[in-house]
Design a protein that fits this description.
Keywords: Membrane, Transmembrane, Transmembrane helix. The chain crosses the membrane at residues 32-53. The chain is mostly helical. It has a domain at 25-55. The protein is 93% helix and 0% strand. It has helices at residues 3-23, 25-54. Helix 1 (3-23) packs across helix 2. The longest helix is centred in the C-terminal third of the chain and has 30 residues, at 25-54.
């Protein structure tokens, strides 16, 4: 992927994130909360797997 396209996509993503947080703070908070819950569930599952594997 050309460097220009990568920079354009990166800055576009940052601009969208700022816009989303500025104009839809409730939606942004819910989205980040859902992402955090999903990550916690994945790591909890990995921890349970490793615990079971060690015992």
């Amino acid at each position: 992927m050309p460097v220009f396209v990568k920079k354009l996509l990166t800055w576009g993503s940052v601009a969208f994130l700022i816009y989303f947080v500025a104009f839809r703070p409730d939606g942004a908070a819910q989205m980040f909360k859902a992402i955090g819950a999903a990550l916690m569930a994945m790591f909890q599952g990995l921890g349970d797997f490793l615990t079971t594997l060690m015992t």
